Each structure stands twice: as C-alpha cells, then as structure tokens.
Amino acid sequence: MGEKGLVCVTGAAGFLASWLVKRLLLAGYRVRGTVRDPEDREKVGHLWELEGAAERLELVKADLMVEGSFDEAVRGCEGVFHTASPVVLVKSDPKAEILDPAISGTLNVLKSCKKNPTTRRVVLTSSTSAVRVRPQTELDPAEPLDETSWSSVDLCERLQIWYPLAKLLSEKAAWKFAEENELDLVTVLPSFIVGPSLPRRPCKTVSDVVGLLKGEADAFAWYGRMGYVHIDDVVSCHVLVYEADAAAGRYICNAAVLTNCQLAARLAQRYPWLPTPTRFENPLGVESPSYELDTSKLTSMGFKFRGIEEMFDDVIGSVEELSQRKNTSS
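-> structure tokens emitted (330 positions)
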C-alpha cells in the first residue's frame, strides 16, 4: 500500500472523527487532526494507539471559535474533513449560543481552506436533521426525502429544537461560501450513528444507545421516529465521496428509518435477555411525522449499508469487551 496525500480531520478526538482517522490511516493517508488540546492524553490518547499513528498522524491545536485558527492545520492538505462541532455550555439563550457557534465555526474552517492552495476537496459532516424536520403536511412516506430536501426553519424554532436548526443553517452557510469562493465542497448527512466508541469517554450518542440497551427510555423518547446508520458506513461514505472525482453535492447516509417502538421490537427479538424499553413518552407531546429517506444517490455508487442488527451487535460486543478488560485489569 503506497502512502497517500495529507488530509486534515477537524475535531479528531470525537466519536465519528476518531473512526475516520483510523480508516484514513489504514488507507495510507497522512492525517493531521485538530483537537482543542493535543497534550490531553485522556481525550486524544486513543488516537495514538491507532495503527499507523506513530508514522502518519499529527495532532495540532485549533479552536472553531477563533478565526484563522485552522490556517496552519489545513496548510498543505489536499483534503479536509470537517466533522467538528463547537462545544457550547448553554447558559441563557440556547438559540444564539448554539446557532452562532455552529455557523461561525464552519465558516472559520472553510475560510482557512480557501486560503490553502492545495485544498482539492472539503467534506463536511452535516446531518439528516437538516432534511427531515418538516411539517406533517409536507411529508409523504411514498415520496422519501432526498438531497433536495431541507428542514423547516420555522418548525425548528417553534419546537425549539436547536440541533437540527444548527445543522441546517451551518450547512446552508457552507454551501453559500463554497459557491461564492469556488470551493469544492461535498456534504455527508448521516442519520443517528450507532456503533462502538474509540474515545475512552463515550459521547452522548453512544451513551444513549448503551442506556437504551439497559432499559433507559428517556433519551430516545425525544427521537420518536429516527433513521439509523452504522458508524463504519458513515466513515466509508466520507472516504468514498472524498476519493470519487465525480462526487458532488449532498449525500444522505442512512440504513433504516424506524419508530422507537419498531426499534425496541427488533432489539427485544434479537436480545431477549436485555431490558429493552417497550414504552416511550414523547416529551414534545407531538406525534413523530412519518417519513423515509432516499439514499439512492449513494447506493448508485455501489454503496451498501449494514443492517440494524449488525449496528447493535457491534455496540454490545464492544461493551462486553470493555467490561472484560476492566475485570481483567482489576
């Protein structure tokens, strides 16, 4: 395997980014990852344990909220994978404190990419949240949502669901910047990502999945109906759209859309020994609209998705492996 070019991964210590760094290293790329503190071994130590890290990984400090902070990080890179999201402690105004950092953080990275003459393509991680939050009257399961669909700003604001709105507005801002500055941008829109965690501290997504398998329904009650996708498929999609010369625009990355009850039934059948919840109280008090997601743009490139069972098999396997390690070490 020959060595490939230099690429940058923002927020390299995160759940998705860590797996992306691993895949890129295994593929022979040189990887420059941005983190808030390269010396924090508790948060970045798992990256140095990856195969190829000693030879081809570099970690540098960068802050999404500081303009120009990514200039050095992307310098000389042929590709940039922007997966990072600002870590914001909401105090009084969730709308301003979540939306503004998401948009300005994305634009800060893209501005640095524009300054770098070697940038061939930028792959931005968005979310199906930027597609699926729409009034019931605009949704028809017989006509799945595709890459031309956008979530409703008004509905997000009315329901005060700031994460989808942040993803929506930051992706739109990215497309506007890319078009005005002739930057080659591709966006990946994963649904709810399921899979084992490389970071030692699991993120909320991983914690919610583990909690569900332990019988905790509160976190998932918010989701209602949700698309699910394996972490490995999301990583593969990022690499595919980066390497494929003809790739362009947005790519929905989703394996299956299920209601909470449908998901619980599948899990209960496969793992009858686990206390999977059977009831989910929706805190919004609004019935989750019925929708499907069209992934034909991705599957037309030969992409195949793993199923729900494999996603959760891998999570359970990793939890059991971690538990065995703790028992052995103690």
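Residues 78 and 119 are 4 Å apart (CA to CA).
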